[in-house]
C-alpha cells in the first residue's frame, strides 16, 4: 500500500464486518418469482428447510418464513436497525401496535431501545411478474443511556432522501443517496430521536454510491477518530490511494484525509459506513446488544417476563393486504401514506 490512507482491505463475508458505532451489515438479494394468493412464491417450496432456509435455491431464500419469505416475529433490544430497500417491499409489524409497508428506495430507521418484537416479511405482491428484492440491513449501536429508549421507528421515504450528483472532467457521473450524515454541503433527513446519529458531532454517515465507468468521487476529510469503511459490493474494480480493489471487498480508510475513488470500466456500487465510535463495552447475544453480560441476562429475563409488550397480531408472520401500498402506522396512531 502506498501510504496509510488505506488501513485494511478485507473480502466480504456474511454478515459484513463493521466497526463501532456499527455492529453488523447484511445484504439480501433474492430473485423472487410471481406471488400466490398468500403473497408467497407461486412455485413449489419442496426441498427447502422451511423456517431456516438461508441457502439460495432457484434464485431465492425463504429465510425464517414458511409461507411468505422473511423474518416472522422476533425480539431486539439495545440497538437500531437501518433497513435500506433498493428494490422490492417489506411489511413491518411490531409489539407497539405499529405496522407498515415500505420499499423501492425507502429506508426504515428502527430504534429497538428497551425492547420490541417485530417482523420483516417480504410480500410478493405481483402475481403476473417476478418480485425481485434487494436490501441492506445495518445494525447501529445505541449509547448506554439510550438503550432504555422507547421502541419506535422513523420512515425515510425514497422521495425525500437527498440525492447528490456530480460529474468529472470526462463527463462520467457519480450519484450518492445520502441516508445519514452530511456530504457536499447537504444534510440527510433526521434519524430516529434516540440515535447516535442524531448528534452531528458523531459524524455518522450512511450513503450509497453509484459510479459510471471511469467516474471519480472524493470522500471528504472528516475526523482523525472516525471509523470509515467502504463496501464495494457490485462492479469489477475501483482504484484508490494507488491500490486496485476488486469487487466484494471492504476497505477501511483513514477519516481525516480526502480520498479519491476512481472506477474501472464497469458500473460500480458502494456502501459507505462511517462514524465516531461510541467507545463503550459491547455485550451481544443474538438479538440483544447491551454493555455487560449481566445486562444481557437481565434482557433475556425481561423478554421472558414481558415479551416486550406482547404480540398484538393474529399471526407470527403477518402481511398487509396486497393493495396496501406504502404506508406507516405508528404505535401512537400516526399514519403516513405514500
Automatic annotation (TrEMBL):
Gene3D superfamilies tied to this protein: Jelly Rolls
CDD domains given in the database record: cupin_pirin_N
Keyword Metal-binding recorded: yes
Keywords: Iron, Metal-binding
GO MF, any single term: metal ion binding
Identification of the protein by name: Pirin
UniProt cofactor(s): Fe cation
Binding site for Fe cation: 74, 76, 118, 120
Cofactor note: Binds 1 Fe cation per subunit.
Domain Pirin C-terminal: 209-309
InterPro entries: Pirin, Pirin_C_dom, Pirin_N_dom, RmlC-like_jellyroll, RmlC_Cupin_sf
Domain Pirin N-terminal: 51-140
Family in the record: Belongs to the pirin family.
Amino acid at each position: 500500500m502506498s501510504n496509510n490512507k488505506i488501513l485494511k482491505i478485507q473480502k466480504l463475508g456474511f454478515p459484513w464486518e463493521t466497526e463501532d458505532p456499527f455492529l453488523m451489515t447484511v445484504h439480501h438479494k433474492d430473485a423472487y418469482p410471481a406471488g400466490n394468493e398468500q403473497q408467497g412464491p407461486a412455485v413449489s417450496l419442496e426441498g427447502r428447510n422451511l423456517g431456516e432456509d438461508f441457502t439460495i435455491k432457484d434464485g431465492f431464500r425463504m429465510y425464517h418464513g414458511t409461507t411468505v419469505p422473511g423474518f416472522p416475529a422476533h425480539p431486539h433490544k439495545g440497538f437500531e436497525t437501518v433497513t435500506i430497500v433498493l428494490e422490492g417491499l417489506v411489511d413491518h409489524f411490531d409489539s407497539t401496535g405499529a405496522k407498515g409497508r415500505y420499499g423501492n428506495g425507502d429506508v426504515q430507521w428502527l430504534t429497538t431501545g428497551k425492547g420490541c418484537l417485530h417482523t420483516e416479511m417480504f410480500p410478493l405482491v405481483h402475481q403476473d411478474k417476478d418480485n425481485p428484492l434487494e436490501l441492506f440491513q445495518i445494525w447501529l449501536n445505541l449509547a448506554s443511556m439510550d438503550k432504555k429508549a422507547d421502541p419506535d421507528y422513523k420512515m425515510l421515504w425514497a422521495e425525500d432522501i437527498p440525492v447528490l450528483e456530480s460529474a468529472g472532467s470526462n463527463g462520467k457521473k457519480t450519484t450518492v443517496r445520502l441516508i445519514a450524515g452530511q456530504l457536499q454541503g447537504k444534510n440527510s433527513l433526521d434519524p430516529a430521536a434516540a440515535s447516535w446519529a442524531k448528534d452531528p458531532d458523531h459524524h455518522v454517515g450512511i450513503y450509497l454510491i453509484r459510479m459510471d465507468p471511469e467516474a471519480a468521487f472524493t470522500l471528504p476529510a472528516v475526523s482523525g477518530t472516525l471509523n470509515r469503511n467502504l463496501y464495494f459490493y457490485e462492479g469489477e474494480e475501483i482504484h484508490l490511494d494507488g491500490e486496485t480493489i476488486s469487487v466484494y471487498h471492504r476497505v477501511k480508510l483513514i477519516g481525516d484525509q480526502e480520498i479519491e475513488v476512481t472506477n474501472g470500466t464497469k458500473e460500480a456500487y458502494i456502501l459507505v459506513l462511517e462514524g465516531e465510535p461510541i467507545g463503550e463495552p459491547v455485550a451481544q447475544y443474538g438479538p440483544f446488544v447491551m454493555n455487560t453480560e449481566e445486562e444481557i441476562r437481565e434482557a433475556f429475563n425481561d423478554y421472558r417476563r414481558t415479551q416486550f409488550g406482547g404480540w398484538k397480531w393474529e399471526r407470527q408472520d403477518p402481511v398487509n393486504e396486497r393493495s396496501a401500498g406504502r404506508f406507516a402506522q405508528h404505535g401512537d396512531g400516526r399514519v403516513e401514506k405514500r
